[in-house]
Design a protein that fits this description.
The radius of gyration is 24 Å and the shape is globular. A 5-stranded mixed β-sheet has the order 5-4-3-8-9. The chain has a two-stranded antiparallel sheet with strand order 1-2. By secondary structure, it is of the alpha/beta class. The protein is built from 6 helices and 9 strands.
């Protein structure tokens, strides 16, 4: 092979090498762009005002460790609540998974997570403790509550303004809201976030960050 052929081969291989390099870089560039766009979205959301929707009434129930837990333990804290039950065949696994996602971005704050069972007769402290373990819930920052059904349903309906049913209908299972609720240090409700929506966590983390600046510890 003469030098002219070698030169031609080298020249023809350059576009191929460039193309392969481009294909390798595309996923990294795309990921970087997505992370940048999410950063921009979160920053934009942080600038919006966080509304107020009333005050959560005082309550006292029992947590997964069999200890009394209620308003007194949440005084002065920003907290996020949801309503679930451990045998739920519907959206509860998704709701609890979304709540679990909040642990990492909020781990360096004093924000507390609270899950109320709408099936307290079955969801004893022991059952809730097992449910919490499956979610790898930090016991110091996430409480699962049970207690008198009347108290929990009244709190959901009258306190959080969320729909709830005890399952006396045709399906025979409890029906409850899929929304997570953000509560500030004064016990005021500051936002509702549907766990079934793709951007729920982004909005919730942004609004929680806003409250942490508005109401420092």
């Amino acid at each position: 092979m003469n030098t002219t052929s070698i030169a031609v081969n080298r020249t023809s291989s350059r576009p191929s090498t460039l193309w392969k390099t481009t294909l390798i870089l595309i996923p990294f560039v795309t990921l970087g762009l997505l992370l940048w766009l999410r950063h921009i979205e979160v920053n934009a959301l942080r600038q919006r005002a966080v509304s107020s929707y009333g005050t959560v009434p005082s309550f006292q129930l029992v947590n997964q460790n069999g200890q009394p837990f209620g308003s007194a333990q949440l005084t002065g804290k920003i907290w996020i609540a949801d309503f679930i039950y451990t045998t739920c065949p519907g959206p509860c696994p998704m709701i609890s998974s979304r709540m679990s996602e909040l642990q990492k971005p909020l781990e360096k704050t004093d924000v507390h997570l609270v899950s109320f069972s709408v099936d307290p007769e079955k969801d004893t402290p022991k059952v809730l403790r097992g449910y919490a373990d499956k979610l790898q819930a930090d016991p110091a920052r996430w409480d699962f509550l049970t207690g008198p059904k009347s108290a929990i349903y009244k709190l959901s309906h009258d306190g959080f303004k969320l729909a709830v049913s005890d399952g006396s209908g045709e399906q025979g299972i409890p029906v409850h809201s899929t929304r997570m609720v953000l509560v500030d240090r004064h016990g005021d409700i500051r936002g509702y976030y549907d766990a079934t929506e793709a951007d729920a966590i982004t909005k919730l983390v942004a609004d929680t960050s806003h409250l942490l600046r508005e109401q420092p510890k």
